[in-house]
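Notebook entry, structure prediction.
Reason for the run: the old model in the group folder had no record of what sequence produced it. Starting over properly, with the input documented here first.
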Amino acid sequence: MKRLTLIQYTLLLSGGLAASSLQAADDMQLQRGEYLARAGDCVACHTVPGGEDFAGGLAMASPIGEIYSTNITPDPETGIGHYTLEDFSRALREGKARNGDHLYPAMPYPSYAKITDEDMAALYTYFMEGVAPVVQENQNADIPWPLNMRWPLAFWKGLFLEDGIYQPDSKQSEQWNRGAYLVEGLGHCGACHTPRGIAFQEQALDNSDDAFLSGAELEGWWASDLRGDWQTGVGSLSIPELVSLLKSGSGGRWSTSGSMSDVITHSTAHLHDRDLNAIAVYLKSLGTSHTSVSTTVKEPVTNGAELYNEYCSTCHRDNGAGYPGVTPALASNPTVVARSPNSVINVILQGVESPATPADSIRYQMPAYAWQLNDTQVAALVNYLRTRWGNQASSIQEKDVKALRH
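New structure, fully documented this time:
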């Protein structure tokens, strides 16, 4: 009898542990899905100001009339409560509702087509289990007949919708690929910042065409050029300044306005620093567009002091003293003035992340600048660091940087 009781106890305990493990996994999936919904800024289009989250009804202007966003809460009658994961995925990637209707491309499915299966499953879990159902009927678009017929959208998709999830570029870093995935896919930045063609399609969906993110008119505003031009684009912004812009709406000489302020409020301000850095690294890798205004400040800076002011002073301060416990001082820094310059060069090229320890679990990250700075610029910056604030070390040459870069 005692043996039977022990066996029963063991089975109950193992069952409880398994249930606890499953619950923890489900909670993690929900949290991941919520984070991804933030990254995709789903609430911006599917929520009326002052209304219930994700209940739809927001009017969006189009050249042929107003379109209203739909209820994407899990209400079974007016929302997406009956959607399977396959239905959900088809809506996001192919722009097709569960009943077979084609969705207007105000829904950025040309970008969402790149969402990975894992992220799609997490988003589905969140919308089905983490979002409160709201009973709110969808509103028909204010588009006159025959323009309101949806079947021609099948031909539009055949011309402009590219199938396939995001495929990492093996020639680029993991950080760059993460940034590309967020910008081109889930973040659908091109939906606003890429000019549209005669059929209202985005002229480019990725960096294979320099029209991508080159700026566009949007509801009476100008969605800025996010490419590398130093006057009209983000060429003058350092990666920390870009991160600050995405996190707070202000970075360097830039500040946000219009609907971009809402994007920051509801989306990018909630992203992890590692994702914001990845986005910044990707954006800083984009060249200028053929439509960019030619300026005399577009040429790369090769003065060490200017480079330090642009890329380093925000975190390491003008006097190289850094911020104790957060960013190291560069004045009298052994790595900076070492007989071999390899470590300081590699830190600039590859970035660095502080270790996580029991004493301090916060990890501080310096981004990699290999994609922003050429060999001449890195050499000029290193020579500046090695001869400022009392530092005395031998100079380096471009070939020293080139050897480590490759």
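Summary: The longest helix spans residues 2-39.
The old model has been moved to the deprecated folder.
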